[in-house]
Amino acid sequence: PPELVRPDDGIEFRPNLASAVPRRKGLTVLFVDLLKVPVNSTVHIKLVKAPDKLTMLNGDTPVTSFSAKVESKYVIEGHSIAKIPISFRGHGKGQKAEIEAKVKVKDGSKYTASGILQIRETIEGDAGLFRKVEYTALYDNPMSASQFADEDGVIHINSIHPTNQLFFGESDLSFSRQIHSETGAKIRLVDVILDEVMYYALSTKEHMGGNEGWYPDEEDVVSSVRRQIEKWKHTEGRKLFSIFLKSAGNLIGT
């Protein structure tokens, strides 16, 4: 399995600073060292000094505290580490709160972790529709290599997708390192981004209609979609790869 850094002091929030835009679900992940905090331990999680309407989500229920059991389904295959996803949502730009996790195990040892949840401003300006790439776990869509969030212009590269893990590792730190040092990782990232951009563009054009729209061949829809995407990738792929070779850090925010 790809190298995975063990959590500091038993448990650790990653990212330590998690962001979302107003009224959209955000995500942080509590990493658990199973050598210190075994499966079936109960972790108590709460928000500290949270402003009104900035909450975690227990299922779909807004909460400011809840308890989560370290279940076997959270264990990362091939590692003695678990990942517990924690969703949150806020309604006001600039909202911020500390998230805190505590656990006491059977031998009496206690472990704590803290992080920050924030509701950030939607990025404005002339940066274009696709503004940033982030390496995050898409627990709601685990089979997809990526997902575009058009409300803030972020292309989320799925950190739990097996092929992505082969090229980028499992953390945002390893992702950044690989993008800066490995040509193969750059090629993989460009390919994933191109797919996401092309499918978004194709979907948009199909819904536009008129002279600016795109219309699939009704007798062979699948082949016509593939031909159009391959055509766009051929014309835009070399350009995008050249940009990444020169400056990968601008888009991934490092």
Please provide a written account of the structure.
The protein has 254 residues and is of the alpha+beta class. A five-stranded antiparallel beta sheet has the order 1-3-8-5-6, with no helix packed on it. A five-stranded mixed beta sheet has the order 2-10-9-4-7, with no helix packed on it. Strand 9 and strand 10 form a beta hairpin. Helix 2 packs across helix 3 and helix 3 crosses helix 4.
Features:
alpha+beta; five-stranded mixed sheet; five-stranded antiparallel sheet
- For the record, give the distance between the C-alpha atoms at the N and C termini, rounded to a whole number: 25 Å
Say how many strands there are.
13
Shape: globular
Helix segment count? 5
> What would you call the structural class?
alpha+beta
Q: What percent of the residues sit in helical stretches (DSSP H or I)?
A: 25-40%
